[in-house]
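The protein record passed on below.

***
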Amino acid sequence: MLPDLTLSTMKLRYNKDIAVLSFTRESSLNALNTDFFADLQKVLEQLNSVNEIRALIITGQGNGFCVGADLKDLPIGTDLDLGKSLRDNFIPMVEGITDLPMPTIAAVNGYAAGAGMGLMLSCDFAIAAKSANFVQAFINIGLVPDAGSTFFLPRFIGRARANKMMMLGENITAKDAVSIGLIYKSVDDGNLMEEAMKLAVKLAKKPTFALLQIRKLLNASHENTFNDQLEAEAEAQQIAGQSKNFKEGVAAFKEKREAEFE
C-alpha cells in the first residue's frame, strides 16, 4: 500500500482497501485553482497505480464540497481563453475521475456548484448532507455549464429539470436533489462520512471488475442503439464469465455462504 498523500489543496488517505480524498481549500469553499488541478493529477496517478483500492470517497473540508472555478484565479481580459482552460484542466479532471479503476462516491457537504457539480456527477454515487446545496451557477456570471454538466444532467434528471438548473441558476436542496434523481441519498450532516464509508465498504465487497463493467455499460447506453447495447452486454458478460469472481460467486451461492471477491 502506498503512503498517504498530503498536497497543498487536498489530501489522500487510505483506510485498508478504501481511499478518501479530501479537498482542503476550505477557506475558499474548495474552489478549483491552478494548484488544485496539479494536485489532482498527482492523486489520479497514484490511484491508478494501486490494485488494492476497492472504493474511493471524495469530499470537501469545511462548508463546501466544491464551488467550481476560483474566479480570483482567472485573469479577466480580452486574451482570456476559457476553452483552453477547460481542455487543460477541467476535462482531464472529469475524465480522470470517470476512468478510475474503482467505484467512486462523492460525499457532498455544503455547496456543490458549477464545475464542482460536474466533479460530483463524475462519481458513481453521490451522498449529500441534508444541508447541502446544488447550483449550476454559470448563467449568473454569463457563462455556459461545463465539466460535463450538459452531458450528465439531462441524463440524470431529464431535459426540463436540466433547463431549470442551468438557465435559471437556482439552488437545489439535498432533499429535492434526491427526489429528482440528482443524487443517491441525503443523510444527517453529522452522519455524512459514516454513511459514505458504509457504502464504500459495501462496494469494496463486490467484484470490482464487474462494477467497472457496469459503469462502462451504463455510459455506453446513452449513445448505443438497443442492438448495440445488447451486444455490449454480451461482450462484457463473456469476459465476466471467465473471471475468478464468477467462479467464486457461483461456489458461494451453492455453499450458501458470503462470496469473497477480488
